[in-house]
């Protein structure tokens, strides 16, 4: 007797979202009813040499995937694990646009306690751990850039790749990042838009910010500033239209350093030219002249950073296609600026909900169950994904002192204590969801199936 046909799942993209989904499904024993293929456009799986932070909400999901021990091996011994239950300091946020000890007649330093703490990793470490946990039954196809797909009357989805390869699936999952081609196609078909109209809405918008990403050897910083706070603690130095974040990664051997520069008059426009460029830090130092000594030291030792234009996806009213056979996750659904350090965290949360829904909802092997599972995913994730994206967009403004009480201030200018307190409170409010568990959302989703 032949075994029943499995539901064919194609995951497009193997960034943090796509790979975590492969891990999530690997752990849920879906082999009997799902056949999973991952298609990635690049010829190698690489990750930018930069850091990534995780907060209790995302960390709990990584624990549920059984990744805690493997990830903990990539952490330095003094890094504490995040926890929803304990109050721990995370970012030390301070006005950075002043010299130490000068201009200070109000408390310009707010040691913001973000409950639960965070952990930081090198992106390559996270990718390595994820790859170790993907089941060998999941097939990975590199150099496969999806360029189009068609849904046939019987529900099959035909996939077209740039290399000429064609494939078919029953469920298509878009983990293809902020410039998702699948998002554009769904928008065009759902709204009956022309390709041009869809491209316009699907194209991410510029937030008005750029950032420079680089890692610096901790020993280099230690040799000139043994007490530099970024050696041991995540630091955020903020000023008008600029801020810089720095935190230790790779067991404290590197300092992930990311200065941001914003021009909010450009917010909501489209980026012209490449989003990412190799750059130099020469002009960068001039942008932070007169800033805190710790900022100057970091900028002096940055070399060959990559320059990123920070974009955001226009809020999507739904993360699924009309048929329910195509599902968006991660940046493809809700790409947003990185100020909350939670873009990957939100992709991981999409995966948490989606993998459990698929494991429970498709166990029957019936194709008809796919659209029901997709609707449940959409109902749970679309409101939260859009909420988190709006929060991180707002946080960018606060960190650039584009906030009440700071309207007219210039670098190094004092502001009333009340404005500082209000700023600290608003920052903490925007972050507060990141230390609350996503379990209730999963329970709600599973109850809806
Ligand atoms: C400066 C900066 C700092 C950040 N810091 C943090 C942080 O501390 N914590 C955090 O949680 N998040 C952070 N983020 C956000 C995080 O990096 C993203 O949200 C996350 O990587 C999104 O994952 P993803 O899998 O959805 O997309 P991506 O990681 O972009 O992966 C998409 C994948 O799809 C592939 N692909 C694209 N198109 C196709 C196609 N047509 N066919 C096949 N494959 C395709 C790409 O090659 C890529 O591998 C930061 C982002 C930036 C810019």
From TrEMBL:
GO terms assigned for molecular function: FAD binding; oxidoreductase activity
FAD-binding domain segment(s): 7-185, 323-366
Pfam families: FAD_binding_3
Keywords, sorted A to Z: FAD, Flavoprotein, Oxidoreductase
Gene3D superfamilies listed in its UniProt record: FAD/NAD(P)-binding domain (3.50.50.60)
Keyword Flavoprotein: yes
InterPro entries per the UniProt record, alphabetical: FAD-bd (IPR002938), FAD/NAD-bd_sf (IPR036188), FAD_monoxygenase (IPR051104)
Superkingdom in the source lineage: Eukaryota
Gene Ontology biological process terms in this record: secondary metabolite biosynthetic process
Flavoprotein listed as a keyword: yes
PANTHER family given in the database record: FAD-BINDING DOMAIN-CONTAINING PROTEIN-RELATED, HYDROXYLASE, PUTATIVE (AFU_ORTHOLOGUE AFUA_3G01460)-RELATED
Protein name: FAD-binding domain-containing protein
Species assigned in the record: Agrocybe pediades
Lineage of the organism: Eukaryota, Fungi, Dikarya, Basidiomycota, Agaricomycotina
